[in-house]
Design goal:
Layout (H helix, E strand, L loop, with lengths): L4 E3 L2 E5 L2 E5 L10 E5 L8 E6 L4 E7 L1 E8 L13 E6 L5 E4 L3 E7 L5 E6 L10 E2 L9
Antiparallel strand pairs: 1-9, 2-3, 4-11, 5-10, 5-12, 6-9, 6-11, 7-8, 7-10
């Protein structure tokens, strides 16, 4: 199974201003995108994911903590599955790829942070949305 991957971006600054970029990201599979802005930094948008779809995350403004779990059973997953934790911010255009088979918990670390989400299926193209209660999975 494909693993999650952080695709590192970069940053350039000169007398004209700054440029953040990601020359390694291949967007050919992306069919749609949307933006998440959590209401507060106190609550995560957890746990949601996809058995078939991929997601790519990039921060437009602020900073986010994204926890990721590879699901073992989509009907009744083990609540003690290991979690990967990423922090991504707007300093560079890093892109976090979450392949099929994973769920995420997304938490803003700064107020008014904005997260761009890219998906490889159009809305309604397939039924592949799984949600679990915020407190279902236990910290490792």
């Amino acid at each position: 199974m494909t693993r999650t991957k952080l695709i590192n971006g970069g940053r350039h600054q000169d007398e004209r201003g700054k440029l953040i970029f990601n020359n390694e990201f291949d967007a050919t599979r992306v069919k749609r995108l949307y933006c998440i802005e959590n209401k507060s930094t106190k609550k995560a948008r957890a746990w949601q994911g996809h058995q078939i779809e991929s997601r790519w995350f990039a921060v437009a403004h602020g900073k986010f903590e994204i926890k990721i779990i590879q699901v073992d059973d989509w009907q009744k997953p083990d609540p003690h599955l290991p979690q990967e934790v990423y922090e991504i911010n707007d300093a560079r255009l890093d892109i976090l790829h979450v392949p099929p088979g994973y769920i995420t918990s997304i938490k803003s670390l700064y107020n008014q942070s904005k997260l761009i989400v890219m998906a490889d299926y159009h809305l309604g193209e397939i039924e592949d949305n799984y949600k679990f209660p915020n407190d279902y999975f236990k910290e490792n």
